[in-house]
Amino acid sequence: MNRKQFFQRSFAGMAALAATASPFGFASCAAKKEKNNVPLNLSFQEGIAPGENLNEKLDFMEKLGIVGFEPNGRNLANRVKEIQDALKNRNIKVSAICAGFRGFILAEDPAVKAEFDTTMREIVAAAGELGSVGVIMVPAFNGQKPCLPHTMETREYLCEQLHELGEYALKCGTTVILEPLNRRECFYMRLVADGAAIARDAKSEGVKVMGDFWHMQEETSDYGAFWSAGTKYLQHVHIASRGRRIMPGEDGDLDNYVDGFRALKEMKYDKYVCFECGTKGDRNVTVPAAVELLRAQWEQA
Ligand code: MG
């Protein structure tokens, strides 16, 4: 080591020492502490918990400290009272509503589009009554045909239609949530950022996006994906094991959510992470194990 290198290294060492003792060092400690105060709000879809009926399922969820319930949107208008009654005096709220409409928004056939408009609006109204964070939708799956062609005009049309729907949802006290998938299921909305950009261009506070750890297979980073939506657009999260879409933990080491959780904690995400998955085992065993795993990874993030 020559004299110049010695001074360069000594200076770098001193600078590093100074940095740890500087106010920036304390600031990062404070940020870390704050990040660790963000609670993990877990939610279950209706099929997750074992139980013969809704009340038995909710009892099971309550024992595990689950705070959200995500029903399917099918027939929701007729279930509002049943769900309200079942949640009375419980520490569980309706999280999102999972689809359940008929038709699709990008249908070429006006009758199919009209069917979407009617059934989606019924579900959105019921979602508002239930205090839901929003109704999840995909504009068109690859297999839904005939579909409007994939052009700029179609994208503009989609944004206009979503604007109207978003404004309607706001009036009902809820939102519509776009769910990005992957290219096999929905080639034009396969990244969280794709959905967030459409939500932005819809120009309505009532249009949001979600991230589903199962569908997020094409993302280069879970952390980057959630931040691409950020607090402005991210309204919901789905979770499953990452190999076979079963209970988190059933696919072993593949089931790592720490990177994504880190983003959620940094953005102080205050909505739900909801189970959407099957299981290969006994739900009485695999469900509590999955909850424990997610809480440990959230702590670690
Ligand atoms: Mg999903």
Instruction: Calculate the terminal CA-CA distance, rounded to whole Å.
Output: 40 Å
Basic shape:
globular
Arithmetic mean pLDDT:
92
Report the top-level CATH class of the largest domain.
Alpha Beta
Count of discrete domains: 2
Structural class: alpha/beta
Going by CATH, what is the homologous superfamily of the largest domain? Answer: Divalent-metal-dependent TIM barrel enzymes
Instruction: Enumerate the spans where pLDDT stays under 50 for 5 or more consecutive residues.
Output: 9-25
Helical content band: 40-55%
Outline the secondary-structure elements.
Layout: H1 3-21, H2 23-35, E1 42-45, H3 54-63, E2 68-70, H4 80-87, E3 93-94, E4 96-98, H5 110-129, E5 134-137, H6 152-172, E6 176-178, H7 192-202, E7 207-212, H8 222-233, E8 234-239, H9 258-266, E9 273-275, H10 283-300
Parallel strand pairs: 1-2, 1-9, 2-3, 4-5, 5-6, 6-7, 7-8, 8-9
Helix pairs in contact: 5-6, 6-7, 7-8, 8-9
Residues 179, 212, 238, 276 line the site of magnesium ion.
Structural commentary:
The protein is of the alpha/beta class and 301 residues long. The chain folds into 2 domains: 1-37; 39-300, TIM Barrel, CATH 3.20.20.150. 47% of the residues lie in helices and 11% in strands. The protein is built from 10 helices and 9 strands. The chain has helices at 3-21, 23-35, 54-63, 80-87, 110-129, 152-172, 192-202, 222-233, 258-266, 283-300, and strands at 42-45, 68-70, 93-94, 96-98, 134-137, 176-178, 207-212, 234-239, 273-275. The protein has a 9-stranded parallel β-sheet with strand order 3-2-1-9-8-7-6-5-4. α3 (54-63) links the parallel β1 (42-45) and β2 (68-70). It is globular. The two termini are 40 Å apart. The chain binds magnesium ion.
